[in-house]
């Protein structure tokens, strides 16, 4: 596993420990069953899967941050299985968790568990994926997911030469054939990503610069269940067979996640595109700066990804947890955007960056997120 730096955690640790002085975490009857000592305070952390290196890193970072703040941590991964995650959260409540941090598999499938948490006075923080259709979610820590979609679409335009990386207009005029992919419909973030991307691309589709040759432009048509690489590869293969069997070529593919991107690239290479961008491989976007895709970008295969520094996300979840466990409300910087169908959930949004081959060093290596050796090998 790659090394995760917590240079900024000192402030959080101090805050967390200070939060547990005096009356102490859990001393208010509405903050769970804590005994007043941070060391006796249990935080349940529910993560969706270990099949993505991103979620492994998130779980590790959240656990380390909470433990440095003095809390006990019950970290569970659910193998992308909804009943397993439901069971895990039930068990956390039964074990006496004082607070829950939940990255949901299906944001609509946890109503019973969160009602049980509310009945027990346990605050719930939604982690990066909004939990929907329940009033029993207290806070949301995430990135500006609409802007992530804007960044994905922008990087596609840059790759085609329609825009320059500095935001100015490029010289390319098209028309370019593009295909669209989205994430899993049961993940609320997928809708934000797709909307941000489509709001950015639609003017170019309307004026003919971009052509979606398949005609598949609705999220229901382009979604990828569970964000699975093999599902994306199969859909790309089907698109090539059904839509590009007349000698026409795909010029770019909007992908919302690096695993999906790698499936798309595999399908394209198997169909004779590439092997890299300089040999005719279409521009393919991505998200999460997974090390396998960062290597592909460095090697001139994948064009871009979005870097969401999950260390910052983990840190913010610890800050929010410490506030709740002190009987206080966490600081929100957005109280309007994230309506879960029942309530607008107070949120803290973080910023993200577009990664191209020429800024891997400054964004990922210099920040300590990946090392030069990891980028070269494509392995964490």
TrEMBL record:
CDD domains xrefs: PBP1_ChvE (cd19994)
Record's keyword terms, sorted: Signal
Superkingdom of the organism of origin: Bacteria
Subcellular location(s) of the protein: Cell envelope
MF-aspect GO terms: carbohydrate binding
Gene3D superfamilies named among the record's database cross-references: 3.40.50.2300
Keyword set includes Signal: yes
GO cellular component, one term: outer membrane-bounded periplasmic space
Domain Periplasmic binding protein: 43-329
Principal subcellular localization: other
Signal peptide: 1-19
PANTHER family per UniProt: D-XYLOSE-BINDING PERIPLASMIC PROTEIN
The name this protein goes by in its record: Sugar ABC transporter substrate-binding protein
């Amino acid at each position: 596993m790659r090394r995760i730096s917590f240079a900024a955690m000192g402030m959080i640790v101090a805050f967390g420990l200070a939060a547990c002085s005096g009356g102490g975490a859990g001393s208010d009857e509405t903050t769970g069953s804590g005994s007043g000592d941070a060391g006796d305070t249990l935080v349940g952390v529910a993560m969706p899967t270990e099949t993505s290196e991103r979620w492994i890193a998130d779980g590790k970072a959240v656990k380390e941050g909470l433990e440095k703040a003095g809390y006990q941590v019950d970290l569970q991964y659910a193998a992308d299985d909804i009943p397993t995650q439901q069971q895990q959260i039930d068990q956390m409540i039964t074990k006496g968790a004082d607070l829950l941090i939940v990255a949901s598999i299906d944001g609509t499938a946890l109503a019973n568990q969160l009602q049980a948490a509310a009945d027990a006075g346990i605050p719930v923080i939604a982690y990066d994926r909004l939990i929907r259709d329940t009033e029993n979610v207290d806070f949301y820590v995430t990135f500006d997911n609409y802007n992530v979609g804007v960044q994905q679409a922008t990087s596609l335009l840059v790759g085609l030469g329609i825009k320059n990386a500095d935001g100015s207009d490029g010289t390319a005029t098209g028309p370019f054939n593009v295909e669209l992919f989205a994430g899993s419909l049961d993940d609320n973030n997928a809708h934000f990503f797709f909307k941000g991307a489509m709001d950015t691309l639609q003017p170019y589709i309307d004026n003919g610069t971009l052509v979606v040759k398949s005609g598949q432009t609705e999220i229901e048509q382009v979604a990828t269940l569970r964000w699975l690489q093999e599902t994306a590869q199969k859909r790309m293969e089907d698109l090539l067979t059904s839509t590009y069997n007349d000698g026409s070529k795909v010029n770019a593919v909007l992908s919302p996640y690096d695993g999906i991107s790698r499936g798309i690239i595999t399908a394209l290479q198997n169909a004779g595109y590439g092997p890299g961008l300089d040999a005719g491989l279409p521009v393919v976007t991505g998200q999460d700066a997974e090390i396998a895709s960062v290597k592909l970008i460095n090697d001139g295969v994948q064009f871009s990804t979005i870097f969401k520094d999950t260390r910052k996300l983990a840190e913010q979840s610890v800050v929010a947890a410490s506030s709740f466990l002190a009987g206080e409300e966490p600081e929100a910087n957005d109280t309007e955007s994230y309506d879960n169908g029942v309530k607008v959930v107070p949120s803290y949004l973080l910023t993200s960056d577009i990664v191209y081959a020429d800024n891997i060093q400054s964004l990922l290596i210099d920040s300590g997120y990946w090392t030069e050796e990891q980028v070269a090998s494509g392995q964490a």
